[in-house]
Amino acid sequence: MTTALLRTADELHARVRVGRRAVVMTMGALHEGHATLIRTAREIAGPDGEVVVTVFVNPLQFGKGEDLDRYPRTLDADLKIAEDSGADAVFAPGVEEVYPGGEPQVRISAGPMGERLEGASRPGHFDGMLTVVAKLLHLTRPDVALYGQKDAQQLALIRRMARDLNFGVEIVGVPTVREDDGLALSSRNRYLSPEERRTALTLSRALFAGRDRHAAQEALRARAREVPATHARAEALSAIGESRAAADTHAVAKSRPSPTTAVGGDAAGRPAHTGGPAAVRAAARLVLDDAGRLSPPLTLDYLALVDPSDFTEIEDDFTGEAVLAVAARVGTTRLIDNIPLTFGAAS
Fold first, then answer.
1. What is the pLDDT of residue 302?
2. Do the annotations mark residue 220 as ligand-binding?
3. Is 182 annotated to bind ligand?
4. Where do the annotations place (R)-pantoate binding (predicted)?
5. Which end of the chain has a smaller Cβ tally under 10 Å, C or N?
6. Residue 49 CB partners (closer than 8 Å, separation 6+)
7. Is 34 a catalytic residue?
8. Is 94 known as a binding-site position?
9. Which positions ≥6 away from 105 have C-beta within 8 Å?
């Protein structure tokens, strides 16, 4: 198949539509993570549908001192990846096509959810992101739009915008794609030197440590549920509780709280209890603390364990889906990563 390159909305609207249109929004510099999104879109659209990939570096979501001018523009290579992955068209408008009157006077506000974590580190970023996503949804008119779960807060905000503002589009999240060593695929990975890349691996290792701690806790709970409700069950619960408490206390004791998030407690500095979310945070924090002493060091921005519905920190008695998220700098490159977890009765 030949993937069409479209520069204007009129060109896109002139295309004959038969089946479902699935859209994948990108800022270009495509990699295997984007290719996975496009292939998933192809499956959803089906053989009679249409897959459109947008390539647009949105100036509204770059803050002062961020890498707008440095951000890679690789349209020829992007076209090849899009075509190989099953895209019917690449919509690559210029700034004047998306913002014909200059920077828009009316924008979408991300609200309180957009001021947390990434929003606190990058003020105004999510307002700019939602504004361009809303515009591109109107310009491309899809039935379904796909986004990567690596940008978990972005995905959550897009879902919230579509729901709160009654966008007639299905929003689909696609799992994070990782390289063989665990590093989450990102267009910014190309900025890393070999030494910086080794340090950057700490982000995924920290998340995996938290995930493993969580899995161990859930396995212990499952074992306790399997023991018959007898005196033996009480003894088993006691033994499991002692074992888990010892491991959790060790992890919490060894962790060192940061100015932004006290892993031995919550973001407000309240004391933590052993087990559950506190132990997951502590296990991840141990890895990140060690990375601060590497050469080059990792500079932590935040480590958070949040409710994906609003990105607030979860409490120790939380049950349900959560996101363990981390952001840090290695050299001049800022990286983010996250993994989903499920706590308690819902797991």
1. 97
2. no
3. no
4. 61, 154
5. N
6. 18, 19, 20, 21, 22
7. yes
8. no
9. none
